UniProtKB/TrEMBL annotation:
UniProt entry tagged with the keyword DNA damage: no
EC number: 2.3.1.47
One term of GO molecular function: pyridoxal phosphate binding
PROSITE patterns reported in the protein's UniProt record: AA_TRANSFER_CLASS_2
UniProt cofactor(s): pyridoxal 5'-phosphate
Domain Aminotransferase class I/classII large per the UniProt entry, residue ranges: 42-382
Subunit architecture: Homodimer.
Keyword annotations of the record: Acyltransferase, Pyridoxal phosphate, Transferase
Species the sequence originates in: Actinomadura montaniterrae
InterPro entries per record: Aminotrans_II_pyridoxalP_BS, Aminotransferase_I/II_large, AON_synthase_class-II, PyrdxlP-dep_Trfase, PyrdxlP-dep_Trfase_major, PyrdxlP-dep_Trfase_small
Signal peptide region: none
Pfam families: Aminotran_1_2
The name this protein goes by in its record: 8-amino-7-oxononanoate synthase
């Protein structure tokens, strides 16, 4: 190891350790689900994005097994070489149908989709307008592209309009937002964003990672929730949250999708998605369509836990998304409560700076349709006992 590089990295790690402590990956055992195994214990899992409980659904896992038997695991080639299988095209058609788009294209993850979409569709004559709280992958994707970038204050449509009005010289304009903001479950005001986009001849791009399968009567996502099914020009999303598999996609009209297939670097220069993952995601999409009761159960579980936490005296940001932000601002309150419920058999993460602003520390609780009422009651009881930690601080 080069000593100069090693010395610098070690001293930077020491500084980081001293300032905020080092992040440690939590290691759980067994499958993802409403409970997870950890250190020989079983914890109620309020930390996963498995909103519909599809990660461990028998039908999803069986379709992956069947694909594994028929096609193997890795394909050792990109889509543009000999990596494509029929299942990839079927999944792309399934995604397009779900979200109400003409077509869709797969990526290895939504992070990759967001890295690949801006540079492929836009040039230096174009301008992107980005919400200040957009996901890191959108920010990195915009950095990789030559288009100019304007950041508007979070959900501030006046600020956005001011920026739109000031860039009349642009060839194309694109407004970019998360459909659901992952730190607080807040849903973007798509009707007003779309209206502004119309007025300024801009395209609307939405990253619907926390909404696909979750929001709207058929699980089509944020647009459908507002009665605007198919009303987004460029939609990116993940197969790794509510759909319980892994992978990402971009959906839109044929010209968008065909352009990405031709020139999007994380599509062209990487291996095709493993066929068992594609098969699992396709089955998950079928279950999203065939089992609306999963979304009903998710809504009921979310409403129950939100009310229970509020009744215990916690400040919960309003909303109805299964991301429940429990606000515990200042000092170590969020971390202390997360540690207390963890000792009591409940897994939920505290978020602090730099993930959220100083003074907005919180615990992010995430609900699944797979949680039983017993599990939710156990979680609420743990949060109730944890209030003693707050009283003592
Ligand atoms: C989780 C998430 C991603 C990344 O999705 P992966 O498929 O896991 O890479 C991208 N954007 C948003 C808004 C997300 O929440």
């Amino acid at each position: 190891m080069n000593a100069a590089l090693q010395d610098r990295l070690r001293s930077e790690l020491d500084a980081r350790r001293a300032a905020a402590g080092l992040r440690r990956d939590l290691v759980v055992s067994g499958p993802q689900g409403p409970t997870v195994g950890m250190d020989g214990e079983t914890l109620v899992n309020l930390a996963a994005n498995d909103y519909l409980g599809l990660a461990a659904a028998p039908e999803v896992l069986e379709s992956a097994r069947r694909a594994l038997r028929g096609m193997g695991l890795g394909v050792s080639a990109g889509r543009v070489l000999c990596g494509s299988r029929e299942i990839h095209g079927e999944l792309e058609a399934g995604i397009a149908e779900l979200v109400g788009a003409e077509d869709a294209v797969l990526y290895t993850s939504c992070f990759d989709a967001n890295l690949g979409v801006f540079d492929a569709l836009l040039g230096q004559e174009d301008v992107v307008f980005s919400d200040a709280l957009n996901h890191a992958s959108l920010i990195d994707g915009m950095r990789l592209a030559s288009a100019r970038r304007h950041v508007f204050a979070h959900a501030d449509l006046d600020d956005l309009e001011r920026l739109l009005a000031g860039s009349a010289d642009a060839r194309n304009r694109v407004i970019v937002t998360d459909g659901v903001f992952s730190m607080d479950g807040e849903i973007a005001a798509l009707p007003r964003l779309r209206e502004l986009a119309r007025r300024y001849d801009a395209a609307l791009m939405v990253d619907d990672s926390h909404a696909t399968g979750v929001l709207g009567p058929t699980g089509a996502g944020t647009a459908e929730r507002f009665g605007l099914h198919g009303g987004v020009d460029v939609l990116t999303g993940t197969l790794g949250k509510a759909l319980g598999a892994a992978g990402g996609f971009v959906a839109g009209d044929r010209a968008v999708v065909e352009t990405l297939r031709q020139v999007s670097r994380p599509y062209v220069f990487t291996n095709a998605m493993a066929p068992p993952l594609a098969a699992a995601a396709l089955t998950a999409i079928r279950l999203v369509r065939e089992r609306p009761e999963l979304r009903e159960r998710l809504a009921a579980n979310t409403a129950w836990l939100r009310a229970a936490l509020r009744d215990l005296g916690y400040k919960v940001l309003p909303g109805d998304h299964p991301i429940i932000p429990v606000m515990l601002p200042g000092g170590t309150a969020a971390r202390d409560v997360a540690s207390a419920v963890r000792r009591d058999g409940v897994l939920a993460f505290a978020l602090s700076h730099p993930v959220v602003p100083v003074g907005e520390e919180r615990i992010r609780v995430q609900v699944s349709a797979a949680h039983t009422i017993d599990q939710l009651e156990l979680a609420a009881a743990a949060f109730g006992r944890a209030r003693a930690v707050l009283a003592g601080s």
